[in-house]
């Protein structure tokens, strides 16, 4: 490619490639993430400390790929994103967002959605499906897909023009794995020698620190600058070794230089105690032992840590962070297993902090505090990733801010030289004089057949618990209500399973497709009687389960051994009105 003047882009993994160093070579390294994990591994519903896949859309290799790119000074890091081979009829845009956000947190800056098989309109439903997603006009969410793609483009447009910050390096035990287990088939290794390895960088990320994976050649080729391990434009104050048993003596020479200059090395569970390779291994093992002895003399710089017995590194790390003064990019008062943050620095020294909450069901509120090196001479802004608008926020005297992330939420906070602008004034989740709206007329518009059915629901509930369990399409909920107050009135839909599109008195109030479904409806109200209309777009899987004679439908929703669970759908509420 270079000889021909063409840029290269490759997924440089599989079996036999070293993911980190191969990713340093291509012009555009590429990783991947899988929405398939949604139902198999409960993305957005759990964050397991027992298995590295459970709860994660990003794959095992993504941290290697993005770290290699960072070490090589690359900002454009692509991903085959949202691959979905099994659960494509049951995946919501909200779940896609969670997967996309997780991938962005690892360092992906260019999203390439996995393709789908195109087929002519006259083919019977669901059409030809070979491998990949179901992005076409037959999917209920098709008219709303633009909300996800615009959101993802805004995230990428910022992150592609900045460098992800990291001041802690992590050396995984790859050489030991190759020695004892052989090269694995990434990104889905059939086995891994230290199963908790990914939990470490995740915990550091959830507690405000930035990390890169490194390799022994990277360590050996680094320079020690002012007590920091420096490679290209990457600079690390600390290095974690994850149960590393084998190292080259020359790598340990670099670590001796590092700790003697003020750097710190943390060994989890064990110290390295043998060399790599077979030739002359007895002598080389002796050299390793000798150098480890020298490193142990730096008692406050070469430190052995015991991992948490339950693998809950998010609960374990804050004490380590505080004891050894591992200063984070942002102090997070209440770290959460689902909440992650990454920091980026632009060429003009402006700062970007990207927070995500991967929990599909729960919000998280915490106090965050930014260090003076971030806030000095700069002003904080929130960039609304749904609209592209910017809003000024105020920090307290300590540089703190109360961060609220609803379910599946994200927040982009930017520090730059711009001083004036509109203030951040988010809609509250509760208010005064609240009242519930009960008793709804519902029109069920079936998407795959020209059928409309009507019902009255005295109490809102998940449609999977009703006679409409097999519905697929748009459920239109209508209700009339009276009000004399038309100022500062907020509508909160409560829990919505699907995409919500709201009208008041026939006037559009907008679309919400994840998290809190809250609307300021003041300018749409009239004194006296009003009508609310809520369109909820559902998934398709429950309906497809009923198509017993449709082999393709059954393959994807009722395959033996991989039967899909019934999905939640509709407006579950409670729907409330309240005032600011």
Architecture blueprint of SSEs:
Blueprint: E1 9-10, H1 19-23, E2 28-34, H2 37-40, H3 62-71, E3 78-83, H4 93-106, E4 110-113, H5 145-159, E5 162-164, E6 168-171, H6 174-180, H7 197-206, E7 211-213, H8 216-221, E8 223-225, E9 228-231, E10 234-236, E11 238-242, H9 249-260, E12 264-268, H10 281-296, E13 302-305, H11 313-323, E14 331-332, E15 339-346, E16 351-357, E17 364-369, H12 372-375, E18 379-383, E19 390-392, E20 400-405, E21 410-416, E22 432-436, E23 440-446, E24 452-457, E25 473-483, E26 489-492, E27 495-497, E28 499-504, E29 507-512, E30 518-520, E31 528-537, H13 541-545, H14 551-557, E32 570-573, E33 576-579
Parallel strand pairs: 1-2, 2-3, 3-4, 6-7, 6-11, 11-12, 12-13
Antiparallel strand pairs: 5-15, 8-9, 9-10, 14-17, 15-16, 16-21, 17-20, 18-19, 18-21, 22-33, 23-24, 23-25, 25-31, 26-30, 26-33, 27-32, 28-29, 28-31
Helix pairs in contact: 4-5, 7-11, 9-10
